[in-house]
Specification:
Elements lengths: L6 H9 L5 E2 L1 H11 L7 E8 L11 E5 L10 E4 L3 H9 L4 E3 L1 H10 L5 E4 L4 H4 L3 H4 L17 H9 L2 E5 L5 E8 L4 H17 L10 E8 L4 E4 L10
Parallel strand pairs: 1-10, 4-5, 4-6
Antiparallel strand pairs: 2-8, 2-9, 3-7, 9-10
């Protein structure tokens, strides 16, 4: 989302220099304090990775259920035709369930869900939505736990704050780790969970510094560079 270039933002940039590195507690506090929009802004993080994104074996992709969720309702669609799995999806409070009918709804209405879950048997149908789901990063993938027969648990995980991440063409991984209303501890623990997950998915061919830069921001606020030495609770 394009940042607001109002007088307020310009003043905030004067008070908080972009090229300065702030400790974890300082950075979180600044983002929370400067998130003054009328809605509850997302607390976002950008991880600049030491990878060559042009090489497929160096791209970073994974998923993680954040300890404190995302602070918003997650919409989940489930592709299955099995009666028992349909019942599991309903019990787990999935927002949409179906096969061809669900695929047609997504195609015609351009309906976007936060998470798409599918059984292995339904992937033939889901694959027809590849051009729509793929660019949005929500194509079901067995490595991410979104192609599974354990529908109930998959939906529950998604509802609890499952995020799927993948670096962009510049080797940068962007995602939300909560809301500005979250406490410092909640943001901190969500960040730790994300970084731990990303480090576990470090490509074996990635050399040198893997986590080059961490930048915090909010939906309508400024960006703050994190001093990584303050991440003493995260395994290096």
């Amino acid at each position: 989302m394009k940042k607001n270039n109002s007088k307020r933002i310009k003043q905030l940039h004067k008070e908080h220099k972009y090229n300065k590195q702030y400790t974890l507690l300082e950075a979180i506090s600044i983002i929370k304090k400067t998130s003054t929009a009328k809605f509850d802004e997302s607390f976002d993080v950008s991880l600049h990775l030491g990878i060559d994104s042009k090489k497929s074996d160096q791209n970073v992709r994974g998923s993680i259920t954040l300890p404190h969720g995302l602070g918003r309702k997650i919409s989940v669609a489930v592709f299955t035709g099995d009666i028992l799995q349909i019942e599991e999806a309903k019990n787990a409070e999935a927002d949409a369930i179906g096969l061809e009918d669900l695929a047609n709804k997504i195609k015609k209405e351009k309906k976007i869900f936060d998470v798409i879950i599918a059984t292995p048997e339904s992937m033939k149908i889901v694959s027809t939505l590849g051009s729509f789901l793929g660019p949005r990063g929500i194509m079901p993938n067995p490595k991410l736990g979104t192609v599974t027969k354990n529908i109930y648990q998959a939906v529950k995980n998604a509802k609890c704050g499952l995020i799927q991440y993948k670096n962009d063409k510049n080797g940068i991984l962007n995602c939300s780790i909560g809301k500005s209303k979250f406490s410092i501890k909640q943001i901190q623990e969500n960040l730790y969970a994300l970084i731990d997950s990303v480090r576990k998915n470090k490509p074996s061919k990635s050399k040198g510094i893997f986590l080059k830069k961490i930048i915090f921001s909010s939906t309508m606020g400024i960006s703050i560079i994190l001093d990584q030495d303050s991440l003493n609770s995260v395994k290096k």
